[in-house]
Design a protein that fits this description.
Blueprint lengths: L34 E2 L4 E5 L25 E5 L4 E8 L12 H4 L4 H34 L1 E5 L5 E6 L22 H16 L5 E4 L1 H9 L1 H7 L7 E7 L5 E8 L2 E7 L3 E3 L6 E3 L5 E5 L6 E5 L20 H4 L5 E6 L5 E13 L6 E5 L3
Parallel strand pairs: 1-14, 7-10
Antiparallel strand pairs: 2-3, 4-16, 5-6, 7-13, 8-9, 9-10, 11-12, 13-17, 14-16, 15-16
């Protein structure tokens, strides 16, 4: 009896994979000397106040100034390393998105290259998200606390910001009748101007903080001022995953208003966590100096020349201005190939008084 085999169509592969956004970490840029070979990175810092010349009696000589004073700060970056194994026996399996008939006539080498490219893309994205998490912690706390997959702290760094730059508001923003979001932002902005010597011009809200900001009676009355154009709310999605919400005058400064709903998966719980917490409001300036630094990972011999051709031609983390070291090598019997990516990036808020963060739910 003849067996009927019906023809069937084959749809293009769908891969659900969201690329890292980098909205916060883009504020940190590589300066000369930022990518280096070594264990630590150091920077000399000079700070001058806004002093004025004082009057003197004629013929008594000038007032003397010390212009040589500076401090040196050293930082040791954390280490990240991600890897994936490829077993040659897995090449007997069909790749996702390749129909069974095409798969049977695809050479093993081509399939191996495709799998290797996908593996490096996945682990490269993980390291980029780790850098975004650094930016998230720095902007909201002025500190770094990095943990391993079991939740143990493996890296800590306190940049020692002034406590006044990370205040808790006196009245929660969730109380619309009595909260004072404009006063809270103004106070922190004035502090940034006074201590950091930069004009604040950017506010990044957690989701609930933004909702409470709009619902507050103070903000509603302020934006309803029919005699003056104090600000506008006109949302626009940015390609970084952030949402540009509009602009507003608060005190003497004109602020761009942003929300950032992007999230990452907590490595311990598996639950999604927002990079900017719901009850946080980050205030900073586009002129604040934030540095991206990166220590090169030593691999002087490079990847194993037998499989070096499996390395991808480009890694997006390199475009993000921090160094990554890819490696690929086979096991002695040639039955398994390892792909690795290591990196030692560290974000440094050099102008530590040039930003701050409000906790709006005391």
């Amino acid at each position: 009896m003849a067996v009927e085999i019906k023809r069937e169509g084959w749809l293009q592969l769908f891969t659900q994979m969201r690329s890292p956004s980098g909205f916060l970490s883009r504020r940190f840029t590589v300066k000369p000397g930022g990518i280096y070979s070594g264990d630590k990175v150091a920077i000399d810092i000079q700070r001058f106040g806004e002093d004025v010349a004082i009057a003197i009696k004629k013929c008594t000589g000038p007032n003397l100034n010390d212009i040589d004073e500076f401090t040196t700060k050293e930082f040791t970056p954390p280490a990240y390393g991600e890897a994936f194994p490829l077993d040659v026996c897995d090449l007997l399996n069909r790749m996702a998105g390749v129909d069974p008939f095409t798969a049977a006539y695809t050479d093993y080498a081509g399939q191996l290259v495709a799998k290797m490219a996908q593996g490096f893309m996945v682990i490269d994205d993980k390291i980029q998200r780790a850098v975004e998490l650094q930016a998230s912690q720095i902007l909201q706390t002025g500190k770094l606390t990095l943990t391993n997959k079991t939740g143990d702290t493996v890296f800590e760094l306190d940049f020692k910001p002034k406590a006044a730059h990370f205040p808790t508001v006196s009245t929660a923003w969730s109380v619309p009748a009595t909260c004072t979001p404009l006063d809270d932002i103004k106070a922190l902005g004035d502090l940034i101007r006074s201590n950091g010597k930069v004009n604040p011009n950017r506010v990044t809200f957690g989701d609930k903080a933004w909702s409470d900001f709009l619902n507050s009676d103070q903000v509603k009355a302020y934006l309803d001022n029919r005699r003056l154009e104090m600000g506008n709310v006109d949302p626009e999605l940015d390609d970084s995953g952030a949402v540009y919400q509009g602009r507003i005058w608060i005190g003497s400064y004109f602020y761009d208003l942003w929300t950032y709903p992007e999230e990452y998966k907590d490595p311990q719980t598996g639950n999604p966590v927002k990079y900017v917490a719901d009850d946080k409001v980050v205030v900073d300036s586009t002129r604040t100096r934030f540095d991206m630094t990166s220590a090169r990972v030593p691999l002087p011999l490079g990847p194993d020349p037998r499989v070096e051709g499996l390395l991808p031609g480009r890694l997006s983390s390199r475009e993000g201005s921090f160094d990554v070291t890819p490696n690929v090598y086979p096991t002695p019997n040639g039955k398994q190939i390892m792909g690795e990516l290591e990196s030692r990036p560290l974000l440094v808020p050099v102008q530590i008084d040039g930003f701050g963060c409000l906790d709006v739910e005391p």
